[in-house]
Structures are given as structure tokens and as C-alpha cells.
Design a protein that fits this description.
Low-confidence stretches of chain B: 384-438, 516-522
Number of helices of chain B: 25
CATH topology of the largest domain in chain A: Rossmann fold
Number of strands of chain A: 13
Largest sheet of chain B: none
Radius of gyration of chain B: 42 Å
Helix content of chain B: 55-70%
Largest sheet of chain A: 5 strands, parallel
Order of helices and strands of chain A: HHEHEEHEEEHHEEEHEHEHHHEHHEHH
Strand content of chain B: under 5%
Strand order of the largest sheet of chain A: 3-6-9-1-10
Shape of chain B: rod-shaped
Number of strands of chain B: 0
Low-confidence stretches of chain A: none
Mean pLDDT of chain B: 74
CATH superfamily of the largest domain in chain A: P-loop containing nucleotide triphosphate hydrolases
Order of helices and strands of chain B: HHHHHHHHHHHHHHHHHHHHHHHHH
Mean pLDDT of chain A: 87
Structural class of chain A: alpha/beta
Number of domains of chain A: 2
Helix content of chain A: 40-55%
CATH class of the largest domain in chain A: Alpha Beta
CATH architecture of the largest domain in chain A: 3-Layer(aba) Sandwich
Shape of chain A: globular
Number of domains of chain B: 3
Strand content of chain A: 15-25%
Distance between the termini of chain B: 112 Å
Distance between the termini of chain A: 25 Å
Oligomer: heterodimer
Chain lengths: 330, 522
């Protein structure tokens, strides 16, 4: 292996592992979720964490923000939250000469890491305030467009849709998340460690191990990993299989899905696969990498039809069927 | 570039391995399925044997279909990309070779790609194809082998109805039933080492091989019977002549026991008696000698042509008695005894031939029955066909003559089916006749034959009462006949001698239904 690339890969792994280990000082268990959250950060994507209240979703995000040396802001989404409360607004201010001038007061979106806590408790109108920021990394207020500082990373948490006082995220909003991670209840073994850490006088302390430029470098490294056409085709086939009633669609998707993944899903598969390849000390993507990130990358992009909703079909079940039946391309 | 060629070379080797492995697996898999069909066919063949042609056609079609299937499934070859994917899977390379091969075919200036290729080359050098593709024997091979072994074993099973398909053997076009085979075996044994035995074997062989039809076989059996029966009339003449001689000799006291033995057909005993008379010639009174000379002369004069040798010796003895020459008489009587023994041997041979002829007649009748339709067979089983002289195959064996027909009684037993055959030749074949007509003839035969027969309790048996049902519990073979053995033998002949035709005509006139014009008797 070329020394420069070898060092690059090694550095990537070290930094990734360092972030993960620091977060693990606070968050017990959820190794996969932590890893996927970091992957999303390095893939220039955003993460949607779903789980019932009290599982440590917010803690995970805040810990991540502590570990990386970046500007962090937290938005608590409530039903009366307005878009301007997120993006900011023009306010009238008196100038030096006593004239009245409009000045833009930035909202909490102007940060590197934004925690959108309980994002589905706000109305869809407010939720949509994140759309531009997440995709274009800009915020438009009036006639002015403000560019967000890089890296920009949104971590949203949401309660399951069945819960009281929740508004489902619009499809366009959902599609902008790189991954949707399901936070489940911790195991009994993990619970003991959680209690030990949270019910004593001293609280775990995390170090900042990564800064903005390093993250941007890591993002470049990720994008440098080559992927062969057959592997890329495999990712495309998986994405196409989520579409109902197409030649490549999976029977489960045809039966239960209203619409499948957008091209962003395939992008997420490939970029996620590249990160996983680097973490496994490889400079090429394999089909295993694609499969490994498929659940997180596709589960929120598969929209169920009435039958799927009525039968309470889990999108993970459909993805599992797709992964089992889609042949690897050669 | 040379390193990239290393990867290509490795993939080429993998492709060859994969191809050969796939082909062998496909062949074994196909054989393990395809062999089930001949195996099942063979199992059916063991229960109900197939003809040779059927076997050949089946095996040809099966082989063609299997070959086509094999060709279809084994054609084509893997691409190098597929070989790379296969290698990745076996060596757990995480798509390294597949990626490397793709980048070899689609070169890129990226340093990352070079690193990837470098890693792939290192692995290519390390990999041992022989270890990854050890050429193991698949499970399908064992299954195919087991099926093949069972197939071979089934073909070589030493069963009577088993035919080895490896030698393209099949069931003969015509399969003799067990009863038929028993008849053939019995006839062969009786005709042992004779031309007729070889002829019979040839007929049966040609019938089984389908070279001749059942009708032709029946005709040939009839011809063979005629050939065998050629000497029967002479035997009848001999028997008649012996009876005549015995009657004549019986008038002499010295020859009384000799005459009795001759009448009983026991010529060996008769020869012993004559030798005994010869021993006593020296002490025999002259008047007895004259009586002996007279009776012996008359017996010699009344003997048929078939007994010329005996009559000549009798004349010599009579001349010796006339000339009062006891020594010459003794010599002549001893010669006569010897001639009687030779005659006994000859008659024994002819009796065996007669029995063989009977077996052939039964065989012919059996073949006729088998040629009839199933319904006709069922009817025939319910209503025994008189012309065949018996009902089913089991009855056939019971009622067929086992003893020698040298005496009047045993001859009578053996005439049943032969006389019935004669009837059927006169009236038409049994298949041409309606069952009712055949049954009436049967009844008439019984009526004619049993007229005056006493029942066990001494009362006259009402045979007509039984015959009204057109089904008699008594086998007409057991009917005692009024005809002499010679007459009965004459009836057995297909070609009747001129002098016997009147007897045959009389016989059939006697058994003709009395109210033939008025309709069937009830």
C-alpha cells in the first residue's frame, strides 16, 4: 500500500476510533448507533435518531458535539415553534446615526452541529425550515442567502410516530437524512453501567478529539475511496428494488411500499460503504459494505402503502428481503 | 502490467476450475435425477416385463433426453468477472479480485486504485488455487453412483422374469404361462433326445421371440402331433394283434397265463410265461403240444402285418411242435419271448410319444384359450369348453392322462381331449362355436359315454338331469367308452386311415344331438 494512502487510512481509523471511544465514555452500549452517527458526520449527511423518550438520544448528540471541537446548538422542537425560531430573523435596530436598519439575527441553525430535539413535535411547516439548510447548507431569509459554516451536521431525534402530539416528517425532509437510526432499549447489562455512570457524584468527562478541519479532511478521504462498477451496480439494484412495480423491484416492496428510495439512498449506500471499507482497512468497497449500511440508509426512504401501514410492516423487513434476493453483480 | 497479468492468469485458472467443477456437478446432478426414470422403469419391468423393443426405445429416448439436458446445462462458460467473484467468495477477499479485475479493464489514474490493485496482486501471489478448489466429490455424485449401482444390481438380479438391459434383453414377445411351460417341459421330457423334442423347442423358441404368431405355433404343434402320432396307428394294430393272439393262445391251457399277460399289455410277463412254457416242453404231453401247435398256428395266421416277426416265430414254434422237436420248439419259444420283450420296449417308446402328443394337444388348447379375449376367457372359465376337455389350467393338470395308454382303461383316460379335438375339427374351432353349442356337445358326449353307468348306490345315474344345467360336475374324460383302443387312437388321427373312417363316422353319428333340427336341447 502506498505510504501516503496508508497513513491517510490509518489516520482516518484512529480518529474515528477516538471519537467513538470518547462517546462511549458517556453512552453505554449503542456501539452501532454511535458508529453510524459518526459515519453520517463524515459522509456529509445528517442523522435521524428515533426512539422512545429517555433512551439517551439527546445525550448521544450532545456528547458527540462535545467530542468534536465544533459550534453546537440545540433546538427543542415544540408545536408552537416557528421557522424563524430556527433560521433567525431580521430585526429593526437603530444605527449609529440614529437611523433604523434591519439586521439579521441568526438562529440556532447557524452552528456546526445542530441538535433538532424531538423534531416531530413541531409542525411540518417548522420542520421544513431545515430543508434548505440540510441539503444546500444555506439559509435564505428574505432576499438574502446565508451560507452555513462547514462542517454542518444535523442530528434530529424523534419519538415514534404512534406517540401523542407528533407530526410525521414530510417525505422531502426524511429523504435529506443520510441515515435513520433506531434507538432501542438498552440491555440489562448496559443498564447497570448506565446507572453506575449517572447516579454518582462524578460524571464522565469527554475530551475533544476532532475539530472542523480534521472532519473535512476525513470527508475528503472518504470520497477518495474507489468503487468498482459491479459494486456500484449492486447498490443501484438494491435501491431500485425498493421501488414497487418496476422490473428490479422486490415482491415485498411491490406489495407494501408506496414509493421507494430516491437516488440519495444509493448515494448513502455508496458513501456509507466507503467509510465502512476504510474502517475495515480496505481501499475499495465491497458488497458487504453496501449491505452493512443498507438498513440505516434506506429504512426512512421506503414509504409504506396502506396495506403496509395496516399490517404494520417494518421497513427493515422489506430491506432484509431485498438484501436476501438481490444477486451480486459481476 | 506484468502484475496485472498475474491477476488475469489467476482468474483464468480459477475460471477453468470453476467451469470443470460446475460441469461435473451439473452432470452428477442431472444423472442423479435422470437415473430415477430407468430405475423406476426397471422396477416396473420386474413386475411386468417389457418387450425388448420397448426397452430399447425407452433407453434410447432416455439417453437422448439426458444427453440433451446435459449439453444444455453444461454449455457456456464463466466470465473472468464471475471467476473473480467466485474467488472472492471462497477466499473471503471482500470483492477485492472483482474490483481489481474491473479496474484492470477500466484503468484509472487514481492512486487509490493503484493501491487497490497492489493489494489484489499481493493476494493473488499468496492464493493457492489447489487449496481453494480441491476438487472434492459432490453429494450428487454419491447419489448418482448409488442410483447407478441399484440399476446395475436390478439388471443382474437372478430372477426368472428379470431381463438384463445391459445386454438389451427384454421380455419375449410371447410369454408362456406356467401351465404352458409345464406342458412344454413334460412333452420335452417325454420326447427326450428325439427330433420331435428339438422341433418342439424350435416352435416354442420362435413363438417366444415373436418370429411366429400364436396361430402359426398352434398349427406347427398340430403338425408335430401328427408327426409324433404317425406310429400310433401301428401301435393300435399291434395292440389289436396282441389281443387277437392272446385270445387265440388263451384257448390253450399252457398259454393261458401268457395270454392273460398279453391281454393286459404286460409283454414282459408274457415273455416270462413263454420262457416258462419252453422250459417245460420236454415234459409236456403230446396232446398238449398239438393243442399248443394248433393255437399258435392260428394265432400266427390271424396276426396283423405289424406283428409279422412274432407270427413268424410262432410258426417256427408251431412247426417244431408239429415235428415233435422239443429243442427246436424251445429255441423258437425263447426267440418269441425275446421278440415280445423287444416289442414291449418299442411300445413303451410309442406310449411316451403318445403322452407327449397329449401334452402338445393340451398346449395347443391352452394357446387357443390365451389368444381369446379376456371376456371370452372369463366366459370360458365359467363354462368349460368341451373341445378342450377341461376347464381352467388347474383342472387341466388334474385330468390330463398320467398313466400309460397301453391298456384299455388308461387309453380311455387319455382320449378325452383328443376326441374332443377331433370333434372340434369336425364342428369348427372352439372360438367359432357358441358356448351353448359346445356345452350341448359336451352334454351329448356325457350322455353317450355314461349311458348305463351305475352310481355308487347301484341306482342308474340320471345324467341328463345334470346335463340340463349344461354344467356337469363330472369330467367327460372319465367317461368309459365302448370303443376299442384302436378305434380311439383312430379318432385321434387328423388323417384318418381309410379302414377307420367308418368307425369315426359312426362315432359322430352316435353323438349327434337327437333333436338337432328342433333346436337346442334343454
Amino acid at each position: 500500500m502506498s505510504t501516503a494512502i496508508e497513513q491517510q487510512v490509518e489516520g482516518f481509523q484512529k480518529q474515528f476510533t477516538a471519537v467513538k471511544e470518547e462517546i462511549a465514555k458517556v453512552i453505554v452500549g449503542y456501539g452501532d448507533i454511535i458508529e453510524c452517527a459518526i459515519m453520517s458526520l463524515l459522509a456529509s449527511g445528517h442523522v435521524l435518531l428515533e426512539g422512545v423518550p429517555g433512551l439517551g438520544k439527546t445525550k448521544l448528540v450532545s456528547t458527540l458535539s462535545e467530542v468534536v471541537h465544533l459550534k453546537f446548538s440545540r433546538i427543542q422542537f415544540t408545536p408552537d415553534l416557528m421557522p424563524a425560531d430556527i433560521t433567525g430573523t431580521n430585526i429593526v435596530r437603530e444605527g449609529e446615526k440614529g437611523e433604523k436598519v434591519l439586521e439579521f439575527q441568526t438562529g440556532p441553525i447557524f452552528a456546526n452541529i445542530v441538535l433538532a430535539d424531538e423534531v416531530n413535535r413541531a409542525t411540518p411547516k417548522t420542520q421544513s425550515a431545515l430543508l434548505e439548510a440540510m441539503e444546500e447548507q444555506t439559509v435564505s431569509v428574505g432576499k438574502t442567502t446565508y451560507k452555513l459554516e462547514q462542517p454542518f451536521f444535523v442530528l434530529a431525534t424523534q419519538n415514534p410516530l404512534e406517540m401523542e402530539g407528533t407530526y410525521p416528517l414530510p417525505e422531502a425532509q426524511l429523504d435529506r437524512f443520510f441515515m435513520k437510526l433506531k434507538v432501542d432499549y438498552p440491555t440489562a447489562g448496559s443498564m447497570s453501567t448506565i446507572l453506575n455512570r449517572t447516579t454518582r457524584l462524578e460524571e464522565p468527562h469527554v475530551n475533544r478529539v476532532l475539530d472542523g478541519p480534521q472532519i473535512l479532511d476525513m470527508r475528503k478521504t472518504v470520497r477518495s475511496v474507489p468503487i468498482a462498477r459491479p459494486i456500484q451496480d449492486y447498490a443501484v439494484r438494491i435501491m431500485m428494488a425498493t421501488h414497487p412495480n418496476t422490473p428490479l423491484s422486490n415482491p415485498l416492496a411491490t406489495r407494501y411500499a408506496r414509493c421507494g428510495s430516491s437516488p440519495r439512498g444509493a448515494q448513502a449506500l455508496v458513501v456509507g460503504g466507503k467509510i465502512r471499507a476504510l474502517l475495515n482497512n480496505r481501499v475499495y468497497v465491497s458488497c458487504d459494505d453496501i449491505r452493512a449500511v443498507a438498513y440505516g440508509a434506506l429504512r426512512h426512504r421506503l414509504l409504506l402503502n396502506f396495506e403496509g401501514e395496516a399490517e404494520r410492516v417494518d421497513t427493515d423487513t422489506i430491506i432484509k428481503g431485498i438484501l436476501e434476493t438481490t444477486p451480486e453483480t459481476t | 502490467m506484468a502484475d496485472k497479468e498475474l491477476i488475469i492468469g489467476l482468474l483464468e485458472r480459477v475460471r477453468r476450475r470453476v467451469r470443470s467443477e460446475r460441469r461435473f456437478k451439473t452432470i452428477y446432478a442431472i444423472l442423479s435425477v435422470a437415473l430415477i426414470f430407468p430405475l423406476l422403469f426397471k422396477l416396473i419391468d420386474l413386475i411386468s416385463p417389457f418387450r425388448g423393443m420397448t426397452v430399447v426405445v425407452f433407453l434410447t429416448l432416455w439417453a437422448a433426453a439426458t444427453a440433451a439436458w446435459l449439453i444444455w446445462r453444461t454449455r457456456g462458460q464463466e466470465t473472468l468477472s464471475q471467476a473473480a467473484a467466485n474467488l472472492d467468495r471462497l477466499a473471503h477477499l471482500q470483492d477485492q479480485m472483482k474490483t481489481a479485475y474491473w479496474f484492470i479493464r477500466h484503468p484509472s489514474s487514481s492512486e487509490w486504485v493503484d493501491v487497490q490493485l497492489e493489494g489484489a496482486i499481493q493476494n493473488a501471489k499468496r492464493l493457492k488455487i489447489e487449496t481453494l478448489y480441491p476438487g472434492s466429490i459432490s453429494k450428487t455424485f454419491h447419489r448418482a453412483f448409488a442410483l447407478m449401482a441399484v440399476f446395475v444390481i436390478l439388471n443382474f438380479l437372478p430372477l426368472s422374469q428379470n431381463h438384463n438391459w445391459f445386454y438389451l434383453q427384454g421380455a419375449p414377445p410371447f410369454q408362456l404361462s406356467r401351465t404352458d411351460q409345464a406342458l412344454v417341459d413334460r412333452a420335452k421330457k417325454l420326447l427326450e433326445k428325439t427330433e420331435a423334442a428339438r422341433e418342439l423347442e424350435k416352435i416354442i423358441s420362435e413363438l417366444q421371440q415373436g418370429k411366429i404368431s400364436s396361430d402359426a405355433a398352434q398349427q406347427q404343434l398340430s403338425d408335430l402331433r401328427q408327426q409324433i402320432d404317425g406310429g400310433n396307428l401301428e401301435l393300435n394294430n399291434i395292440l389289436d394283434g396282441l389281443t387277437s393272439m392272446a385270445n387265440q393262445l388263451g384257448q390253450s391251457g399252457a398259454f393261458e397265463s401268457t395270454a392273460q399277460a398279453m391281454s393286459a399289455g404286460d409283454l414282459a410277463e408274457a415273455a416270462d410265461q413263454i420262457r416258462s412254457v419252453a422250459e417245460k416242453l420236454g415234459i409236456t404231453p403230446a396232446d398238449v403240444l398239438r393243442e399248443m401247435q394248433k393255437n399258435m398256428s392260428q394265432a400266427a395266421n390271424n396276426s396283423p402285418a405289424a406283428l409279422q416277426d412274432l407270427s413268424k416265430l410262432m410258426r417256427e414254434a408251431a412247426d417244431a411242435f408239429k415235428n415233435d422237436d422239443p429243442e427246436a420248439g424251445k429255441v423258437a419259444l425263447n426267440n418269441l419271448a425275446q421278440a415280445l420283450e423287444q416289442l414291449a420296449q418299442k411300445m413303451k417308446g410309442q406310449q411316451q410319444q403318445s403322452q407327449a402328443s397329449q401334452q402338445l394337444a393340451d398346449l395347443k388348447n391352452s394357446l387357443q384359450q390365451e389368444a381369446a379375449s379376456d371376456q371370452a376367457n372369463a366366459d370360458a372359465q365359467l363354462t368349460p369348453i368341451p373341445s378342450q376337455g377341461q376347464g381352467g389350467g388347474g383342472e387341466k393338470g388334474d385330468s390330463s392322462p398320467n398313466g400309460t395308454p397301453s391298456t384299455g382303461k388308461s387309453s380311455g383316460n387319455g382320449q378325452g381331449s383328443q376326441s374332443a379335438s377331433a370333434n372340434s375339427s369336425e364342428l369348427g374351432s372352439p372360438e367359432d362355436l357358441k358356448p351353448e353349442e359346445m356345452t350341448k356337445l359336451d352334454v351329448q358326449l356325457k350322455m353317450e359315454g355314461l349311458k348305463g353307468q351305475a352310481a355308487k348306490d347301484g341306482q342308474q345315474q340320471d345324467l341328463e338331469e345334470a346335463s340340463k344345467q349344461e354344467r356337469s360336475a363330472m369330467d367327460y374324460r372319465n367317461v368309459p367308452s365302448q370303443l376299442s383302443p384302436a378305434q380311439k387312437d383312430a379318432l385321434n388321427q387328423n388323417r384318418l386311415p381309410r379302414e377307420q373312417r367308418e368307425i369315426v363316422k359312426y362315432y359322430f353319428e352316435e353323438i349327434r344331438p337327437r333333436a338337432a333340427a328342433a333346436g337346442p336341447a334343454k
